[in-house]
Amino acid sequence: MSARDVARRTIRVVAPGLLTTVQDLGRFGHGELGVPPSGAADPLSLRIGNRLVGNGDGDAALEMTLVGGTFAFERPAVIALAGSDFAPRLDGVEVPSWAPLEARAGQTLQLGATRGGARAYLCVRGGISVPDVLGSASTHLLVGLGGVEGRPLRIGDRLDVGDRAAGEPPRARFDPRRVPGLLRRDVLRVTPGPQAAWFLEDERHAFHAEAYRVTESSNRMGLRLEGRAILPSAGRELVTEGVCPGAVQVPPDGQSIVLLVEHPTTGGYPKIASVISADFHALGQLRPRDVVRFEPVSFETAQTLLTEQENALRELLG
């Protein structure tokens, strides 16, 4: 290992938390190889965290799930935490999320259990530096691809901080309440899925009217829901076709599955709905036992909601 490599190693994993991985915005365009996008389960929080430290939207960061880790900074760093509140403390002093922070050499950042939501992102000015695989640094856990050897972080791992050209952090304090929908996860807005017409009107009405519980078997592949069974008309069979994140699949037991970032690239279950892009971040913040409803919107409304969200980001973060 060269002296330059040693000098760049700045973050040591003291404790990895429950499930901490390196993620960026994902790898796209490889569905024909059976490789889904992976990437941050809450891409909006990752983007905000990166902008808070002057990074590009898609720079790699650490995604923590339900219980955060402990990280020692061997060299000074500018960091930001975005997403759920994991009770962060820097050398024992509580620090805020959604704000750039300076960590001095020798300081330790400790995160605990989530106070709400499922995931938090630790963004570092310059980005986490790991080799790209198929054009992305993101970790795909199921196949062991990307990130740090395709796996969650372990005690003793050391992470390089990149030297990408970065802009300046925003001068004004960022208020997450000013981004439409950012802090809400009890309602997911959906447009009709490709096979919505396979379900009778009563079934579609029930799907939108009922509340569903996120089960413990949910993961980065998808959210398994529990509630009133929703079934298509008898005698309909679907030829396996391509699927995408946010699709709401209905297997034979009628208990819906909402696909997340490590979903299979094809599926043979009918899709009653699709979560809109402006609410996709909320999928990554749903925890086991959370309760959620699906609110129908038009494609035009979905586009308007995404535009409003992006305009708010631009106003707040540039």
What is the count of β-strands?
21
How is the main sheet built?
7 strands, antiparallel
In N-to-C order, the SSE pattern is: HEEHEEEEEEEEEEEHEEEEEEEHEH
Instruction: Please give the CATH architecture of the largest domain.
Output: Sandwich
Cα distance spanning the termini: 39 Å
And the CATH topology of the largest domain? Jelly Rolls
The level-1 CATH class of the largest domain = Mainly Beta
Compact description:
The chain is 15% helix and 27% strand. It has 318 residues and is α+β, with helices and mostly antiparallel strands. The radius of gyration is 20 Å and the shape is globular.
Descriptive report:
The structure is a single chain. This protein is of the alpha+beta class. The chain folds into two domains: 3-174, Sandwich (Jelly Rolls); 187-317, Beta Barrel (Cyclophilin). The protein has five helices and 21 strands. The chain has helices at 3-8, 43-52, 201-209, 280-283, 299-317, and strands spanning 9-15, 20-23, 61-65, 70-73, 77-83, 89-90, 93-94, 100-103, 108-110, 119-124, 128-129, 158-161, 187-192, 211-214, 222-226, 241-242, 247-249, 257-259, 266-267, 271-275, 291-296. Strand 6 (89-90) and strand 7 form a beta hairpin.
How are the SSEs placed, and which strands pair?
Blueprint: H1 3-8, E1 9-15, E2 20-23, H2 43-52, E3 61-65, E4 70-73, E5 77-83, E6 89-90, E7 93-94, E8 100-103, E9 108-110, E10 119-124, E11 128-129, E12 158-161, E13 187-192, H3 201-209, E14 211-214, E15 222-226, E16 241-242, E17 247-249, E18 257-259, E19 266-267, E20 271-275, H4 280-283, E21 291-296, H5 299-317
Parallel strand pairs: 13-21
Antiparallel strand pairs: 1-4, 1-12, 2-3, 3-10, 4-9, 5-8, 5-10, 6-7, 6-9, 11-12, 13-20, 14-15, 14-21, 15-18, 16-19, 17-18, 17-20
